[in-house]
Structure formats: C-alpha cells, structure tokens
Specification:
Helices cover about 30% and strands about 15% of the residues. It is an alpha/beta fold. The longest helix is centred in the last third of the chain and has 13 residues. It is globular and about 65 Å long.
C-alpha cells in the first residue's frame, strides 16, 4: 500500500513504536508524502530522537510547532496553574508545556544521549569484540561491543534483531562482516538449548554470570555513570529502548520495582548479559572460572600484586 499523506494522532505514546513510524514512512516514500504528527510528548523515545532533536539541529525537512496548553483560548488558566502547582515538574513540562523532560521511572537515567551517543567511526580490526544475545523465536536481538585497548572505554557499534531464522541462520548473519569472532554471552540461565543450537550453528555463546535482572541493571547503570560506554548514534533500536526502559509508576506517579512492558526490551536484555560478564567483580569471576582477568578495561580487575583491591587499567579518556 502506498499513501500520499498521513496524520498520526498521539504518536508519542509509548506503544507507538519506532517500527510503526518507519512502516508509515515506507508507505509515503513513492509519493514523497508528508506526515502530520499531533501529540503530547510522553517519553524520550523515537519522537524525540527522530523528530525533535533533528529539528533542533535545523533539519530542513522537519517543522515543529510547540505550544503550551494556555495557547488554546478555551483552556482555563486556573487549571494550568493548578497543574503547575500539583504535578511533578517533569509531568507538567510534558503534558502542559509540550516540552521533552526525563520522566520518572526511567531506569537508565545515568545514560546521557548528548555525550554518550557518538558518530560512527571505523572500529580497528585489532580491538576485542563482544556480543550480548537475547534469544527468541520472534525476536532474537544482539548488541555488539568493542573494547578500546588500554582504557576502560567500550563502544557499542552494531545492533541485530531478526526473527523467523534457525540458530545457524542467526549465527551466520551475526558473524557476517565481523573482523573477528566476538566473545558472546546470552540468554537466561534456563536457555541452554538455545546456546547449544547456536554452538552447533557456528557461534559459541556463554551462559550469563548472573540471573538476577536487577543486579544486571546495576552493572549497566554503573557503566553509564562511570562514562565507560559510547554508543554509535545510528543504533536507533538500542537508543529507542534505552530512552524508554522504565519502571511502572504507581497511582501517585512514583516508580515501583516492576519494569513496564519488560519483555519487549530485547536490546536492553542483550546489553545486560554482556555488560554483566564484562564487568564482573572478583568473587564472581572466581566462581566463573577466572575468566574476568582476561577482560580488557574491567574496573574491578585487581592490580598486579594486590589480589584483593580493585584497580583500573589505563585511564578513561
């Protein structure tokens, strides 16, 4: 189906995913049709990354008309001021001023897209490569990470998501174009059959070192907080998930422990598996057979002659 124009109402809602926007753009392509989006900003996902941010950077193909609720002559000023007084600042900014603000419950608020998402550059073939995998019949996702020698810096340089393939077909597609076979970690503790199928298909995948989701989230959070991970800014699927991965809010707008729509965040799971393996503390490494000592840039790695103290090889740039 091809179309000449599209009107998307409230497309900023969380359930309107990047894939839906890309599908609409494909329908508009032949006629170079225009899209009109009328929406409140709800989170920091694709609408901000693909529309708002490029507009701020003076993309000539995008026009944004932004206005607060009071620009509507029928909207009561008293209601506006009551909302300003009673609502959290982030919610008032989103819903009454039409401004993008970090919402409550965002899990990785330590990730700064302005400084940690960077333009693509060629990854040297000599750099160590790693791969986190989240298995699934419908969606198997992978996140590729390279380690900058002599530093603690990691670079997320490639994302992969596909379905309807055998494990061997996934393995072939994952390894295509790679300068070297990455060290791969993935799946939950119970997904040994998936790992066996991938191994038979030509890609060995290690079992995760931890099974607790919150511990893994803490490892990834720390990597962002210590500014150890850079992400190529064309990894749109990863960045969409990173900016929308959130806690469920209670009736008072406060975050709970539950993760909203947790089973749809495949890149976040893949990242958690590989970062948890790359950033193992000493005790965990010993239980895993001492593999951690071989990992470049591990901030938990002991200094020579000091088996008990943490040390950081190299300096963070």
């Amino acid at each position: 189906m091809t179309i000449k124009a599209a009107w998307l109402d409230e497309a900023g809602q969380k359930r309107f995913k990047l894939g839906a926007w890309e599908a609409i753009k494909r329908r508009l392509a032949i006629y170079q049709g225009r899209a009109l989006i009328t929406t409140t900003p709800y989170d920091l996902g694709w609408l901000k990354q693909r529309i708002w941010d490029p507009w701020l950077a003076h993309d000539p193909t995008i026009a944004v008309i932004n206005f607060p609720s009071t620009q509507n002559p029928a909207f009561p000023v008293d209601e506006y001021e009551t909302a300003r007084r009673d609502l959290p600042a982030w919610k008032f900014a989103l819903f009454y001023q039409g401004r993008f603000e970090q919402p409550a419950g965002l899990i990785y608020d330590s990730f700064d897209v302005a400084t940690q998402a960077i333009p693509r550059f060629p990854i040297p073939a000599s750099w160590a490569r790693y791969l986190g995998l989240d298995f699934g019949g419908v969606n198997t996702a992978g996140l590729f990470i390279a380690a900058e020698p002599g530093t603690t810096r990691l670079i997320a340089y490639r994302e992969y998501k596909a379905g309807g393939r055998t494990a061997q077909e996934h393995a072939t597609a994952l390894l295509a174009g790679e300068a070297r076979t990455p060290d791969a970690v993935g799946g939950s503790k119970s997904e040994g059959q998936w790992r066996q199928e991938f191994r038979m298909g030509g890609l060995a995948v290690r079992e995760p070192v931890i099974s607790d989701v919150e511990v893994g989230i803490g490892r990834v959070y720390g990597v962002h907080a210590r500014d150890e991970l850079r992400v190529f800014d064309d990894l749109v699927g990863y960045l969409e998930e990173k900016q929308t991965y959130s806690r469920v809010l209670d009736v008072n707008g406060e975050p709970t422990e539950a993760i909203e729509d947790k089973h749809s965040f495949h890149f976040m799971d893949a990242e958690r598996y590989i970062i948890s393996w790359l950033r193992q503390p000493p005790v965990e490494s010993a239980l895993a057979g001492g593999q951690r000592s071989q990992l470049p840039g591990n901030p938990y790695q002991p200094l020579p002659g000091n088996p008990f103290g943490p040390g950081r090889p190299g300096g963070r740039r």
